[in-house]
Amino acid sequence: FNVGHVPLDARSRQFVGSKTVLYQSVLKLKRPCVLSLMTEGHSPWTRNADDGRMAIHAAVSIGDHTLVQDLVREMKRVKQLEKLDFKSDSFSLLQSVLCTYEHRDDESHQKCLELLFAKDILLNVTQKSPNGL
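RESULT FIELD:
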């Protein structure tokens, strides 16, 4: 599977409304379904049309560190990268994990945060909100 050669039918099925199928699947379905969608050509790099978020945003917001690992691995594989550059998504990714981190003893959200700060992910921790907040 090469993202540049995804069959047209797979690309045309990437969205339901303004959200990607993969993004919604992360929020609502189980891991095997998400993995199957990626195998079928749903790119983890595809952004929602309305808010520009990717499936990894959904995974960190629900605290599913296993899915975060799966998405990171697939994102690297698809673009043949050793490191993921999320500098332009730093604010939204950190906001996604921290704003849903309701319980201080919630290890799953903590693990997601640790994954975002791994050596193979580039973040800009000084990035401000897009609307200046």
